[in-house]
Amino acid sequence: MAKTPVTRKIADELRGRIKRGELGPGALLPSEPDLADHHGVSRQTARNALQILEGDGLVDVQRRRGRTVRSHQRLRWRLSDFEHPDSTGSSTADAWDTDIADQGATPSSRDFDVQKINPPPTVATILGLTSDDECICRGRVRSADGRPVVLSHDYFDERIVRGTELADEADTQREDILKEAGYEQTYDVDHITARMPDPTEARKLQLSTGTPVIEHLRVGYTPDGKAVRVSVHIVPGDALTLEYVIAT
Amino acid sequence: MAKTPVTRKIADELRGRIKRGELGPGALLPSEPDLADHHGVSRQTARNALQILEGDGLVDVQRRRGRTVRSHQRLRWRLSDFEHPDSTGSSTADAWDTDIADQGATPSSRDFDVQKINPPPTVATILGLTSDDECICRGRVRSADGRPVVLSHDYFDERIVRGTELADEADTQREDILKEAGYEQTYDVDHITARMPDPTEARKLQLSTGTPVIEHLRVGYTPDGKAVRVSVHIVPGDALTLEYVIAT
DNA sequence: CAGTGGTCTAGACCACGCT
DNA sequence: GCGTGGTCTAGACCACTGG
Predict the structure, then answer these.
(1) Distance B38 CA to C17 C1' (A)
(2) Is the pTM of this model over 0.85?
(3) Does the distance separating the beta carbons of A199 and B15 come in below 8 Å?
(4) What pLDDT is stored for residue B175 in this prediction?
(5) Could you tell me which of B52, B57, B58, B96 has the C-alpha nearest to residue B213?
């Protein structure tokens, strides 16, 4: 019956030792030659077994040291109740900062960037634009303890935010700019999916193999149901836990 | 400068053709020998390139046919506003069914199962139990169009639900059982992370390599902040989009 | 039944970074 | 320097399945 490949058997044995805690976070796995000798297989076979575990996100690879068991403690990111505090309260950016700081980590932000571009297909559909229209894209990378944990892009119809601070090439914390432009946001819809990162995302977020990302889309609507803002957040799956509080 | 491995170059070339739509969903990729010949490399190298794309969840493998470009259309799963309708409304299970049906898919459920077990560590911590306490675990697999899309487990403190329908080995649609037991749920907290599936999950959800899962934890609380219910949902990243509506 | 992917071997050379 | 992983080759046998 069990004609499972040797490579899988080796991988599963190691996986078991990791899950049972026999090999705790940070523990060193056998090297490729060691593993090969111990099981009487070629180095490639041992290597393939180890790479299965990499693909499953269970181990880190460090040159010269070998492979170690990955630890996964995640920071929390509150996405309801605290994301949009009342008018004069702290802004979104501040909320992020304080939320991360409350968890004992050091928040930072870099690569802030504002562009006028043609909207990507997904965004165009949501905002009711064509691929020839223009939109304002405000991007940034948010980090915790020096590690990038969110890749954010906010998209707006260029005709709506023209002349406002949102079209400026400068950061802003104010949340009521759209309202002043006559487009008050009254509710959001969040869309959450998981997928593997593309190479660009993997690089910007410093992801190792076997780490998926959460794609978090937040669409802001006016009272009459017009979408006026699309926020795209790419989050390493091993960095954050998204959190929603729901009254029932 | 560019000392990128041949294997990556080949993978990136194919990735580009996929992203540009040159190779649309369902399109057949070159076979391993073809790719090897065309690039003047060994079959293993061509194979490794193709497996990078598999790891990125971009292609499906079909025996004898070859590798095809994967298509990803996702169903929507509403997790707020509609998940907990008022008392006499439709139940959670029904809400799922109608929600999926509304999207033109056929919902089904199987492998319903009730067990009395020691709680897994995560659940034990949340419910305030030790690993020696007992809890009731109610599991099921939900499918759409025959494909499993949610692996669900509900956990309750055994002492709380003892004697209620929740401890019975039968399905139930009623939502107010906990309330009758004196533990009314008034709010939920959802925790969402992404990770690679373990082999058991991959099997039950029929996942191909390169498909991450969303781990969705919903914790139900009583008015005084006691956690009385933990729902764990494992969702293939390419099957569903979680959706939250948030009033601001 | 031909051609696909799945698996495995035995060997080679390289880049890198601790010791 | 030496052992780690990173890459690549040339060849082999197998299981499966669509044409």
Answers:
(1) 36
(2) yes
(3) yes
(4) 72
(5) B57
